[in-house]
Design a protein that fits this description.
The protein is of the alpha+beta class. It contains 3 helices and 3 strands, in the order αααβββ. It is elongated, with a radius of gyration of 16 Å.
């Protein structure tokens, strides 16, 4: 889904992609990750929380870096991702506090949630 609030970013990334293809026929996939991810201004925190907790239970997410990678692949235009692991261990695993910021043409957004 193309986010109209990302028009400046979309234009820049499309120009980079065209220039790269002209130079060496290369392909850039990660610069404009617009498909199947949450837009910067409309992140579904409940879905992210549920999915992260599910992946922790399945042992597919093992540490803070795995959580950062998952957030990074699920959200457009993230700027910073912080994952704080608390010493408290629950029956489902560790307790994490997750914070991240995103940006689009209209501003910055800050999101925060916890796993339990």
């Amino acid at each position: 889904m193309r986010d109209p609030r990302q028009s400046q970013f979309n234009e820049i990334s499309e120009n980079i992609k065209k220039k790269t293809e002209l130079i060496d026929g290369g392909e850039i996939k990660s610069i404009n990750n617009q498909e199947n991810v949450f837009t910067a201004s409309n992140v579904n925190l409940g879905w992210l929380q549920d999915r992260i907790m599910e992946l922790i239970k399945k042992k597919e997410i093992k540490d803070k870096d795995d959580i950062k990678d998952f957030i990074g692949s699920s959200v457009q235009r993230w700027k910073k991702i912080y994952v704080h692991k608390h010493n408290k261990i629950l029956k489902n695993g560790h307790y994490y506090k997750i914070e991240f910021s995103t940006k689009d043409d209209f501003g910055y957004y800050h999101y925060e949630f916890s796993t339990y």
